[in-house]
Predict the structure.
Amino acid sequence: MQKKVEILSVGTELLMGQIANTNAQFISRRLPEVGLGVFYHSVVGDNPERLTECLHYALSRSDVVITTGGLGPTQDDLTKEVIAKALGLKMVLDIQSEEWIREYFTKMGKTMTDNNLRQAYFPEGCKILDNDEGTAPGCLIEQKGKVIILLPGPPRELIPMFNKHIIPYFREKCATPLTSRFLRVVGIGESMVEKKLYSLVDGQTNPTIATYAKDGIVTIRVTAHDEGEIPATLLVSDMCGKIASILGDSVYTDNDEEIELTVFKLLAENNLTFSCAESCTGGMLAEKITSIPGSSQVFKCAAVTYMTVSKTEMLDVDPTIIEKYGVVSKETALAMVQGMIKKSGTDVAVSITGYAGPQYDDEPVGKVCIGVCAPGCRTVKEFRFSGNRDRIRTLSVINALDMVRRALLHLDPAE
Amino acid sequence: MQKKVEILSVGTELLMGQIANTNAQFISRRLPEVGLGVFYHSVVGDNPERLTECLHYALSRSDVVITTGGLGPTQDDLTKEVIAKALGLKMVLDIQSEEWIREYFTKMGKTMTDNNLRQAYFPEGCKILDNDEGTAPGCLIEQKGKVIILLPGPPRELIPMFNKHIIPYFREKCATPLTSRFLRVVGIGESMVEKKLYSLVDGQTNPTIATYAKDGIVTIRVTAHDEGEIPATLLVSDMCGKIASILGDSVYTDNDEEIELTVFKLLAENNLTFSCAESCTGGMLAEKITSIPGSSQVFKCAAVTYMTVSKTEMLDVDPTIIEKYGVVSKETALAMVQGMIKKSGTDVAVSITGYAGPQYDDEPVGKVCIGVCAPGCRTVKEFRFSGNRDRIRTLSVINALDMVRRALLHLDPAE
């Protein structure tokens, strides 16, 4: 039976909403690699009674409890002491940690205050997990068949410690590792994806299939464990093949990557340069492409022609086209993308013009026209998106990227 | 005694680490406004037994339980049914919701599948919370002195529903309302802010002061309750005045607003148009400004001149300047912003050129030059930011916006 993991995050800043619990997300994403499943997340404040209560409850329902936060030197950092007490363990000084902390302060040229020495005390019998990025080491306690792991809160400390200590610890113990692959789909809604995959999903236990939709992209997770002689990887790739044959070229990746990365790779592989002409999206497409390290290999420039007159000034769009067909029209989108190609001299370009809201006069909010020019391909398409301004802009960018992808792969436009 | 709130998020995608629990963060941040404190977050998968168990546990330790997720039309959306069963309530069809869902599909020109109708069934006696952004309404159940609220998972649905239904519901019930105000500071780090405010923060119980740093902005929350005759609002505004006098013009808002909104308002009040010339930020500044509804009132255009040659092609930057001083230099930043003003004819412009990483050759990653032109003001500044690519880009945009703000307010540049 699969071991159940619970992540117990300690910190009032989480309960005040000052930060999102990205530590729980990070740990949850990584543990399936070593055959563990996360069944619960909990968050509790820096309060000894409530933390004790949460720990006991976590141990009653989970096999592994990983705490994050509360290992620092300040008064409200109390995780280690509270958990030691709850488990009936004494706190003992670890000479090596003491030395290490003293050295750390010397190296940083800072004065060590007494409360920093608290970080060298640990529950007796635990395994100390050193922290190369900060002064708070973590620890791992094995007790009555359960494992309790204490990690610090700052992600830049937690992440390397997790990689260095936790993954190897569980990999050694792992009996039946899980394998997951993530397909991503663009241009089909989540309920339609589920409907199409119903016969595959229904009653399926190995692999399991789960879908998740965000911002116009549906992610399909396929997870399996070894089944007798059949390795998990084979079960997963078989299932992914079946899904791909049902969903066709709407599946843009089987590698859980953002669509801008897929487009970037296609451009780079084909040695093509890329530019964009944006109106309602205001630079969002350019921002997404340039978020990729190394994007300067393919991305040349963008013109964000937000006011109507800029479309003429920056892209030479004929004002009579705008007047005749409207600023949000296939004709204007086509003139924008053609202007961009001419002005920038890039191989591939995309244009977006639309009404993202708020409502002015009787503009049809959600109407967006997107044009693409690529070698041997010129397409323009009109969309009607629903949702608020942010969603309309995001869907515009996702669909523009999908149109570029389809143009580069010589696929038919999506329905 | 303060009511305890628990946020119970339902969704395997959270336990798989596909998304961070930003809903819990959002709700936690907002509830103190209506006098409520969040004591626990929990996350459980789409599993009826475990969800039932978590609900009972939450009700045993909290007064208000807010669930997020699992209200959609798919098979694994089971929150409503499971919670109704756990509370001993029947599910009944709500005719109005049925009509509304049918209308929604007609309006979208989509076919309604049978599973969508599940969204019109609710636990008997509950208050239905309509959802203007999707097909899954939420609901609110009062039972045995406890309040159970079911909200959908997608933030673009949850956030408006929370604002429309949940805040007013609790505001009406709130005995000792808290008043909060959020100041925001740009250009000073969190530990420096804390140091400067130490004498105000130390031992302070009403108002309380908390700081929180993200992406180059430090937010300071000041929260108070009425103190005898003195109203909370007065206590808060007094404290905000003290903080502002210590931190000076680094405080850009006392209204918890993004800095792009502050800049947008300054531009709009002064009837000034705005354009930007971006290199390493790749359109991020334009995207931020145009995320504001109504930004077309001030924002004209942006040139994202990512490749060096585009700086000359789009902004007429003299190539000899780039050759002599380098593409990331004050001189190039100045030529970019001046080129933008000339080309676009706007009143105010900003330029950003920098090395955001990854490291090529011996480029100094983190070096960013920003130029601003505004009526009666021309400034250019060199920064050295640390962190990864995303952080360097974000800090570049925040500081560019701050330079525009200072130019518009005729303030000295920040230290």
In short: The mean pLDDT of chain B is 92.
